Amino acid sequence: MKNIVIIGGGPAGLKAALSADFKYKDTERQITVIEKNERCGRKLMITGKGRCNVTNNCDLDTLIANTPKNGRFLYSAFSKFLPQDTMTFFETMGVPLKTERGNRVFPQSDKAVDIVDALVKSLKPRGIKQLHATAKSIKTENGEVCGVELENGEIIKADSAVLATGGVSYPVTGSTGDGYRMAGELGHTVTELKPSLVPLCCHEGFCTRLSGLSLKNVTLSIFESGKKKPIFKELGEMLFTHFGISGPLVLSASSYIRKMGKAEYTAVIDLKPALSDEQLDKRILRDFETEQNKAFVNSLDALLPKSIIPVIIERSGIEPRTKVNQISRVQRSELVKVIKNFTLRITSFRPIEEAIITSGGISVKEINPSTMESKLVKGLFFAGEIIDVDAFTGGFNLQIAFSTGYLAGENV
To answer: What predicted TM-score, i.e. pTM, was given to this entire model?
Structure first.
């Protein structure tokens, strides 16, 4: 009897279980998935704002290019299980998919639960056991895996084990760093853990006044000190919070910030990206000409969200009670500049608990990239976010989970 234990019932763990089952389909085996939550895939349920950006419909080179942290390490995993394989996998299980902007792939239903259900429902017919429990440690003999101890003291026999416990972001979903501790007890190195895909804190105090303001169809650029070109620039949605900025654009931008604390970063928002400086000036002039005796403080309601107008006025340097027919071309030019280049100084990431992805993890130097097996402990494998790899937004991180899960399961 071959005993395989998967610790963690997220996308990487579930894929590893299914991959192992296929490999040993003609062999007497017992595959057990240990999950501390009552239901597997809890974090998967909240990805993509509840829609689940399941992968990115791209090629191998694009996958690696969008994985800035140890992307080359994943060459074998990606080669074995590409985005097209992920798409075929789910569509074969009855989940129709669609490709949207940026090659992001979602279920046609826009419901993450369909992805989770497809994975979970495929376990039982295959005889894969789901165990609602918390793993405490991995037992070894002579440098080989021999079992997994649960918190209640029970030991489950294991010829091999896959650690797929995720990182430390979103701990309410079960990602509490247990896997790092268990691997560390067996001699593995855990690199520095940092937040990725996370909201950003800003220096400007007015962010508190703007808290709750949602901006749509704006362009966010991130500049790193010493570089002339932005390290990130994209059109989309974002949100002001009491601490700074958040929302889809900001989460994406945060993954490009790799030297927080060592370099200075600035966020620049173009509030009217559809208009050139000249077009925006003409638009403002038209608004001013409509009611020439109006005070400047009351003249921007048709152009900008109400809550941001006082901040724009402050930054323009124009006295609020000035009649619009008295505002000069030079002053209008400054106003245009403020609207097209609304600047914030980034001070830090929000805490890692608020991040979508953990950057850092089990050192890739201690994992065989062709199998996902530990170089230190025979029969121990790793899959998903626990490994020191992370990618940009767009479905790439979930593809890492599926690819590494597949490769680990194929080699247990």
So the answer is: 0.89
